[in-house]
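Technical note accompanying the year-one report. For the benefit of new consortium partners, we illustrate the data format agreed upon in the data management plan: each record pairs a sequence with a structure-token string. No post-processing was applied to the example shown here.
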Amino acid sequence: MKGSELVASLTLIVVLASAWGQGCGQPASPRLAVRPAWATWPVPSAAGVDLPRSLAISEETVADAVTGLTWQRQVPAGHGYAWAAANQICDSLVLAGRDDWRLPSRIELVSLIDGSRTDPAIALDAFPFVPGNRPLSDWYWTSTPSAASPTRAWYVYFYFGYPDLDDRSADFPVRCVRGGRVDAPAVHYEIAAETVRDTGTGLVWQRGVSADTLDFQSATDACAALDLGGSDGWRLPSLQELATLVDETRAHPAIDPEAFPDTPAEPFWSGSLFAGSQTRAWYVHFDEGSALYEGIAALHRVRCVR
């Protein structure tokens, strides 16, 4: 069964988890009955700013040795598609002698974001613009349906570089992908009392959440001062790191409730400043998992990483 067939057969099924939220007396978040796609590549880079990357670029494809993904280098000229058609376009693609292409998941497409630039927020050496093609700064579909609405799906906006949701009837281009890491771990999280280790990314997360909302600088300072689980070296996660915590099958909050109990469906600061700015920074909103930027004086929740 190809990617779009699996999505079509499962995305309209939404179930409520039978377990109740730990310690809060509230029902667990609704869960979409689709196998989640989660990052199975090592994060972070040495600076903790961006996903590491080692690209092999050919005329037709770009292969990322870190994620194990191979990308379509050029998007189809001048075309956009509704979400169902976008899945079919990638499923039917034959490129570089391969026919196993598919529409990328939300977190897979997020891995292409280059947070150091905008318009477009993607590496131009790997994905150059060709006149006549759809702009690189456009909205690009992913294969990931919304966990909260049967009529919406995820996209990544490559003008600024963030994931969000839109109606499936929207006209967006596609960048197809194939492959992935074959050594992906079977268990997503290793859960301890105070920390959670993501077995795919290698990141260790603070399990609890800040009791108060903080501005960006206070959030940065709080993580730097944190001593938790017998370790220091904590920091605010980058935007892409924080995006790996989004559970694509859940909403309100969009996070695994066993690994991260009592997480509010609110914005959480990332440590990523908006490209070219010292006064705006990125956050992830864990109601559904979208990302956006805001002035650094805004007050948001904090979850540290190391």
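Partners are asked to follow this layout when depositing records. Residues 120 and 136 are 6 Å apart (CA to CA).
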